[in-house]
Write a structure and sequence with these properties.
two-stranded antiparallel sheet; about 75% helix; elongated
Length: about 400
């Protein structure tokens, strides 16, 4: 949250710098570079480094422009190979043609009279010198060319920072809403089974990776956690429910059966069936995507959607699990364990043992019999009525 606030502050300062007639493009680019660093936006960070004249990027870009110009003049196989070689060098530096070396940018940067790949601060100063001296050129730089260069950098920086502003400013609502769901599901799964929760959290982490194999692994994790969840909620059996096989491999059917049982009621039967079918279809889709992730090419969007829908489906399953636990019958005092007597009645272990012994001796317990146990007062009797079923 603190990083987001700092990024927004710098973004707003950058916009003011770019939109002011007295603003400095150099200052704006420096602030934009800091924003890119905070947001871990590698493309923007590199673009800023180019405008600041970092030779790591500007030298190979100059070579690329020279090679392109040479090819236009000669169009030989040698110059074509040279272009390919330089392109590969640019790719190794994470330079992207659609962002760092567009046709528009290359046309601007190839103009030596407009500053080329010099630092934008140097270009601004050269332009201001010509304005102050009321000259059209310095013999090396031309005022019109410098102005064209500055306006290009200013416009592109404004486009970039405006896009970042929208992304940072308005990303919170949706992401925070999902964070609420994610945190709730993660916490509930941790209570139910830490290993299952870990599988889902790792799947979410994997889809954020840039590696395709991790996207596939995310879907494999989704499938495994659904299998584990089915094992936890409704273990495999040879029986069938509504024609659905509940064997080990039929984990989707077992999750269906669990939900069918949990939400089944005379008044809501039709709605319950519809809901189960809907969720079941998503479970099938996740399953197919998971298999696709293992055996075929998979794009990141498919992986993200599968993980998000897994969270939604698991959230519904856990909601019905909570409802089942909430509406379940209270423990019967005549079948309660020693631990249950101690915990539910909030009594000492020795008193719980006395109650257990008396129940064994009498064959059952009721309020009157319970009241005869030493250490059991009116408060404990009232608690027993709330916490236990008493025949």
């Amino acid at each position: 949250m603190q990083e987001k606030k700092e990024a927004l502050r710098l973004i707003e300062e950058t916009l003011k710098e770019l939109e002011s007639s007295k603003g400095s493009v150099l200052t704006a680019i420096q602030k934009l570079a800091r924003v890119a660093l905070i947001l871990d936006n590698q493309d923007v960070k590199i673009w800023c480094e180019i405008q600041l004249g970092n030779p790591i990027y500007t030298i190979p870009l100059k070579k690329y422009i020279d090679a392109l110009l040479k090819y236009q003049e000669e169009k030989t196989a040698i110059s074509s190979k040279e272009i390919t070689k330089i392109k590969n060098e640019l790719l190794q530096l994470n330079l992207k043609s659609e962002f760092h070396s567009t046709i528009e940018e290359l046309n601007i940067k190839k103009d030596i009279n407009g500053g080329g790949y010099e630092n934008i601060g140097f270009i601004e100063e050269a332009y201001n010198d010509l304005v102050r001296t009321k000259k059209g050129n310095s013999g090396r730089f031309y005022k019109v060319h410098l102005n064209t260069h500055i306006n290009y950098v200013k416009k592109k920086a404004h486009d970039i920072i405006s896009k970042l502003y929208n992304e940072v400013k308005f990303s919170g609502t949706v992401s925070n809403s999902f964070d609420i769901l994610k945190d709730a599901v993660d916490d509930r799964l941790l209570d139910l089974d830490p290993k299952i929760s870990e599988q889902l959290m790792l799947a979410f982490k994997s889809v954020s990776s840039t590696k395709k194999e991790e996207w596939s692994q995310a879907l494999t994790s989704c499938r495994r956690l659904l299998e584990s969840l089915a094992d936890k909620l409704l273990p495999a059996s040879s029986e069938k429910i509504d024609g659905r096989v509940l064997k080990q491999g039929q984990y989707v059917n077992r999750l269906w059966a669990f939900m069918d049982k949990s939400i089944e009621s005379d008044s809501n039967k039709s709605l319950a069936k519809t809901h189960i079918d809907f969720l079941g279809s998503w479970l099938e889709k996740v399953n197919k995507l998971a298999n696709k992730g293992v055996h075929a090419e998979l794009n990141q969007l498919e992986a993200v959607k599968a993980v998000f829908h897994t969270y939604l489906v698991v959230a519904d399953i856990l909601e019905y699990l909570i409802q089942e636990e909430t509406t379940s019958t209270k423990p019967n005092i005549n079948t309660a364990s020693l631990d249950e007597l101690e915990v539910h009645l909030n009594i000492s272990r020795s008193i719980a043992k006395d109650i257990f012994k008396l129940r064994t001796q009498e064959g059952y317990l009721d309020i009157d019999i319970l009241s005869t146990v030493k250490g059991v007062g009116q408060k404990t009797l009232e608690k027993a009525k709330i916490e236990f079923l008493i025949d």
